[in-house]
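Lecture notes, unit on protein representations.

Consider one protein chain, 127 amino acids long.
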Amino acid sequence: MNRTSINVDGLGHGGQPIPNACRLGNILVTGGIAGIDPATQELSTDGTLQCAQLFRNLAAVLAAGGASAANVAKLTFFVRDRNLRDAINAQWIAMFPDEHARPARHTLVYEHLPTGVLVQCEALALL
């Protein structure tokens, strides 16, 4: 099987040689996706705005890998503050409106996110 790195302009990993995602056969796995604006490289200090941008970035990475929200099997979220769950839920319901066809999800409180990042996610998708 061929492994392919997936990269989206503006969503790098701080100059590190790490792709946004990896596609191996019919599996697409992302690295950490945050709520940074890919056009400006700015990160809002508002967790709700970071969540909204994170979901836009997630959609862009999925599309670059040949996937969509329909292909997502699991999302793992890392948050500095558990209170961000409401902001995640709002975007979650928008991306996955059918309550009978949502992917698995896990949210972990993690204090060691990069500077300014309040929420980050990883995704596993099957194509």
